[in-house]
Amino acid sequence: MDIQIGRGKTARRAYGIDEIALVPGRRTLDPSLADTRWQIGGIEREIPIIASAMDGVVDVKMAVRLSELGAMGVINLEGIQTRYADPEPILDRIASVGKEEFVSLMQELYAEPVKPELIEKRVQEVKAQGGIAAFSATPVGALRYGKAVAEAGADLFFIQATVVSTAHLSPKTATPLDLAEFCQSMPIPVILGNCVTYDVTHSLMKAGAAAVLVGIGPGAACTSRGVLGVGVPQATAIADCAAARDDFYQNTGQYVPVIADGGLITGGDICKCIACGADGVMIGSPFARASEAPGRGFHWGMATPSPVLPRGTRIQVGTTGSLEQILRGPAQLDDGTHNLLGALQTSMGTLGAKDIKEMQQVDVVIAPSLLTEGKVYQKAQQLGMGK
């Protein structure tokens, strides 16, 4: 139902992940029976979680380790890994600089050009160690480097922007990326994002997307919502985009996964995204807290280097455990940020969902008090859900 903002302007109520709760059904099942497997671009994974293509989250080592643990990670094609042969001193500088110097330092570091030979090297490094080689670029980066990524033997290619669409208007001096033509010409699956609406999701699938990323501005280090005022809360965005996926499948017989991207911290967040219709999720800050993460306990938005209008910041997330503890356990923390797979399996068992498709069908209620009801002592003592 539309709400009147004022004369001549109405709006639809949208909901964030923190505003909803999942409702148990008539049955339960042992968590060990919960099947969390999913497919993206023809690649099957046990865990429906992708590590974000951010320099503080995924490098070659992380991509390989995530693959070994049953998930996967994406390396940013226009980040530190492809601008510097040895990224370690650069990452040290990013972690050591003060808050006031951060933006200018990032603009300096990211002014270094991307080197095509490093693209091939990073792909080969991941592949040589048995990892899934997934790389991400902006639409402009895709035009420049997409072919090189495919020729180097990558498995998946992600095109990501704050907002991506098939109807992009460019100045006469620029050549826009034709998404449909690009997807058709690439010999590897192409994942497109980000979007938050039914219509754009449907158009991206029609263009040939192997999967679609959903989420504008909810990321922990992203400031686009504050700077640009753009975005749709994740619960509503996921549900709308999942509806487009289902209609597209009904009309074409082609199933294109929807991936919730951004703003997800705990296992409960992941569970609620899937219940809203997502097939998988992409997360950044939870993995930035891994001891193996390249960010040294920091996490930053990849729009930060913009020389015109930075739309990201650097946050200190700390280091809370190994990647295995965060992804598969055993949990060392009581706040839902460790053993994300176990949380998903246990939630599915509690809700009686045998697989991801059944999880997408569970009942959801609007619950603004879900995270605060009865949690006075946790909040006061900064424990569990009160942290």
Short description:
By secondary structure, this protein is an alpha/beta fold. It has helices spanning about 60-70, 80-85, 90-95, 100-110, 115-130, 140-150, 180-185, 200-205, 225-230, 235-250, 265-275, 285-290, 325, 340-350, 355-360, 375-380; strands at about 1-5, 10, 20-25, 40, 45, 50, 70-75, 135, 155-160, 190-195, 210-215, 260, 280-285, 300, 315, 365. The protein has an eight-stranded parallel barrel with strand order 6-7-8-9-10-11-12-13, surrounded by five helices. A two-stranded antiparallel sheet has the order 1-2. A two-stranded antiparallel ribbon has the order 3-16.
Which characteristics define this entry?
387 residues; eight-stranded parallel beta barrel; two-stranded antiparallel ribbon; 16 helices; 16 strands; 17% strand; globular
3D structure, described in words:
This protein is α/β, with parallel strands linked by helices and 387 residues long. The chain has one domain: Aldolase class I (TIM Barrel). The protein contains 16 helices and 16 strands. It has an 8-stranded parallel barrel with strand order 6-7-8-9-10-11-12-13, surrounded by 5 helices. A two-stranded antiparallel ribbon has the order 1-2. Helix 11 crosses helix 14.
Terminal Cα separation, in Å?
A: 35 Å
Helix content: 25-40%
Output the strand order for the largest sheet.
6-7-8-9-10-11-12-13
β-strand percent reads 15-25%
The top level CATH class name: Alpha Beta
Shape: globular
The overall strand count is: 16
Largest sheet: 8 strands, parallel, barrel
- Which class do the helix and strand fractions yield? alpha/beta
Q: What is the CA-based Rg, rounded?
A: 20 Å
